[in-house]
Amino acid sequence: MGIELGSVQETLLIPLYYRATESMQEQPLFYDQAAVEILPELDYDFSSFDSAWSLRNDVVVRTVIFDELVTDFIRRHPDGRVINLGAGLDARFGRLDNGRIRWYDLDMPDSISLRQRFLMPTDRNAFISKSMFDTSWFDDVGADAPTLIVAEALFFYFDEASIKNLLSKMLNRFPGAELVFQSICPEIVGRTKTVPILRRTRAELRWGIHSGRELSHWDPGYQFLGEWSLVDRFVERWRWYRLVKVLPYYGRFLREVMKISHIRFATEST
């Protein structure tokens, strides 16, 4: 099946490939049945992906961490809602569904069109065919409920002004909601050449922060809850992990360039 996607949208193929290949290992860290089934249906040359072991680890480890964070939210709010920004071909709803949660997968129209070839919406899993910057989607996610917004491998493809504006609107519309997002550090911004697979998709790295704590400088309504560096999980998979311990600067850099942050939007009364 042929694929026609925009530059950023094409990056959805990266996690699909690595989640599928991880799932086919003898002892996978997770099993993504949808990815396994979709991958052979796509007419796309994935051969260059096999040599990018660091990016593979990024996808696999971040998948585990995001799964854990979403699972914890569902445990605390079994009747809440999850809004998955830049969903692509992500099938997290199918892996983590508790039978009660309401889930919204949002992405650009070309990505949602591709998604609908393989995955079907349900009464509790809606697909929203819009840019995340088209905030009319705020009206598409139902009545007020405990809310988790997920942004995996997404925000760093856009400039700071755009992300700052989007989060400000979310803060005002979803008081009390939680946000988990992946970010890179500022030193990597503009260095797309360091990730050969991204050169192929024409996507660019545009925004980075050293820590999710920095968002509180934008607005005190962003309450920092936690942060996880990918290189500190499943350390046996990172070939150069020993350098993290013996070279403090290098270790700090790696922790900042591959991390997931968790914040809460303050309530209106805060």
Structural class: alpha/beta
CATH topology: Rossmann fold
Radius of gyration: 18 Å
Unreliable residue runs: none
Report the principal-axis shape: globular
What is the second-level CATH architecture?
3-Layer(aba) Sandwich
What would you give as the CATH superfamily?
Vaccinia Virus protein VP39
CATH class: Alpha Beta
| Annotation field: number of helices | 11
The pLDDT mean sits at 89
Helix content: 25-40%
Biggest β-sheet: strands ordered side by side in the sheet? 3-2-1-4-5-7-6
Pfam family, one: LCM
Keywords: Methyltransferase, Transferase
Protein name: Leucine carboxyl methyltransferase
GO biological process, one term: methylation
Polypeptide structure, described:
This protein is an alpha/beta fold. The chain has one domain: Rossmann fold (3-Layer(aba) Sandwich). Helix content is 36%, strand content 16%. The chain is built from 11 helices and 7 strands. It has helices at 7-10, 13-23, 33-38, 53-76, 92-96, 109-115, 160-173, 196-201, 215-218, 241-246, 248-257, and strands at residues 81-85, 102-107, 125-129, 147-151, 178-183, 222-229, 259-265. Strands 3-2-1-4-5-7-6 form a 7-stranded mixed β-sheet. Helix 5 (92-96) links the parallel strand 1 (81-85) and strand 2 (102-107). Helix 2 (13-23) crosses helix 4 (53-76). The model has no long low-confidence stretch (mean pLDDT 89). One of its GO terms (molecular function) is methyltransferase activity. Keywords: Methyltransferase, Transferase.
